[in-house]
Design goal:
CATH architecture of the largest domain: 2-Layer Sandwich
Helix content: 25-40%
Oligomer: single chain
Order of helices and strands: EHEHEEEHHHHHHEEEEEEEHHH
Strand content: 15-25%
Number of domains: 3
Strand order of the largest sheet: 4-5-8-6-7
Length: about 260
């Protein structure tokens, strides 16, 4: 690990001021950044610790949406009765992330700002058409994720919360790496009150993406059998020692069918 300066922010304004003046990286849960630093894959000159900023934590219902603070831990989302009542798919997704340590340290904001190709939260954000609230404004989900580890965030812009519209029904299913619990393929499906459907896929490509072919079929018939009729093109999908691109393409359909079945 390289040497770095450490600053524990006392407020959102304090964190933004330090990042604007000195650069560096914000530290949320540290479940991705700290291991990268230990391996010398990341070398921030300054770490701005967000853990002491109370205004970035919490879960609340705002009209037809559930708003989750950026520094809310995965375990807190999984245990939240408000989340379970409004969007149970989010609680189930959070419960399936990593192990107990990761769930008690990792945060929603850190996950989506990092945008790991196999992370679960980006699929929920994109699948539910959530709004990402930041220190500089708002980002629509469809315009937020910009490729592998890339987002629309500016260098000194921090995620403060995510607003998830409450769907008619939704569910998430993933085929997990048995060691890391990252998704080899994860599929989040959401059906809205007007019958439209969004399907977001993680783990299969360099970044989370929507699957238009599944969305079209499920909008006509929101059933597992309908999902199984879709053949996903393997072009552009990841292939590695865990799974080929063709196998991941097959898993997208399988996980979509399981998610639809779970959604009911």
């Amino acid at each position: 690990m390289y040497a770095f300066d450490y600053h524990k922010a006392t407020s959102l304004a304090d964190a933004v001021a330090v990042l604007s003046k000195r650069g560096g990286r914000p530290l949320a849960g540290g479940q991705s950044l700290v291991p990268a630093m230990k391996l010398r894959l990341a070398q921030p000159g300054t770490l701005v610790d967000l853990s002491g900023i109370a205004e970035l934590r919490g879960i609340r219902r705002e009209g037809a949406a559930v708003v989750i603070g950026a520094m809310t831990r995965h375990a807190e989302v999984a245990a939240s009765n408000d989340v379970k009542a409004a969007i149970p798919a989010l609680a189930a997704l959070a419960e399936g992330i990593g192990d107990r340590q990761v769930r008690n340290m990792g945060t929603l904001g850190g996950s989506i700002a990092n945008n790991d190709p196999a992370a679960c939260w980006p699929a929920a954000v994109l699948g539910l058409d959530a709004t990402i609230v930041t220190s500089k404004g708002r980002h629509a989900a469809d315009a937020f994720f910009k490729g592998m580890y890339g987002t629309a965030l500016a260098a000194d812009e921090l995620v403060t919360a995510v607003s998830f519209p409450v769907p008619a029904t939704a569910a998430y299913a993933k085929f997990a790496n048995p060691a890391s619990r990252f998704a080899l393929v994860g599929v989040f499906v959401a059906q809205r009150a007007d019958g439209s459907v969004r399907v977001a896929v993680t783990g299969a490509a360099p970044s989370v993406f929507r699957c238009a072919s599944l969305e079209a079929v499920l909008a006509r018939s929101f059933t597992a059998d309908a999902a199984k009729t879709v053949k996903v093109d393997a072009a552009g999908l990841n292939g590695d020692l865990h799974a080929s691109a063709e196998y991941r393409a097959h898993l997208i359909t399988v996980m979509a069918a399981r998610a639809v079945a779970a959604a009911g």
